[in-house]
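hey so u asked for the seq, here:
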Amino acid sequence: MTRRLIIAISGASGAIYGIRLLEVLGTDPKVETHLVASPAARFIIAQETDWMVDDVLALADVVHQPDNIGASIASGSFDVAGMIVAPCSIKTLSAIAHSYAADLISRAADVQLKEGRPLLLLVRETPLHLGHLRLMAQAAEMGAIVMPPVPNWYARPATTGEIIDDTIGRALQRLGFENEIYHRWEGLHPAAP
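ran it, structure tokens below
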């Protein structure tokens, strides 16, 4: 049975998180990915990575235009396993927290919340002021999973890629997608004498 997952890439720094999600899920024939990349995300992809935007779009099974609020993923009757916004800008977080469904990313996110499906937000901003914290609390109160991409240092990552994989692997695991790309905690190791 194929499971559908919506991946949204907003205009926050860290587009590589969404790209890596698409790469990892692309290896699983039992997952159908639905991608929405905002106009700002397309700019960030070109600015921060060596990826061509068209190559990123080609990683998804289905690509939806961000202004198409009539897309399949804008309806609760379209069955999906959930949605990950990676990265999630504060603008996108604000739209989600206020149910301001003016584009497809915020509309699809709102649908996940109203249908009781998982919505995971990799909020990418630092430092955070009180308004940001309140938006995260509001989104969490509505049912969203707020997961800033904080490095897992106990895994002793040696590369940026390992840090990204650990975050993506944990996000997928949180939504019930088994994977082996993140480090699982196995308890403290005895200190060397």
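Strands lie at 3-9, 31-37, 62-64, 83-88, 119-123, 145-146. The longest strand covers residues 3-9.
lmk if thats what u needed
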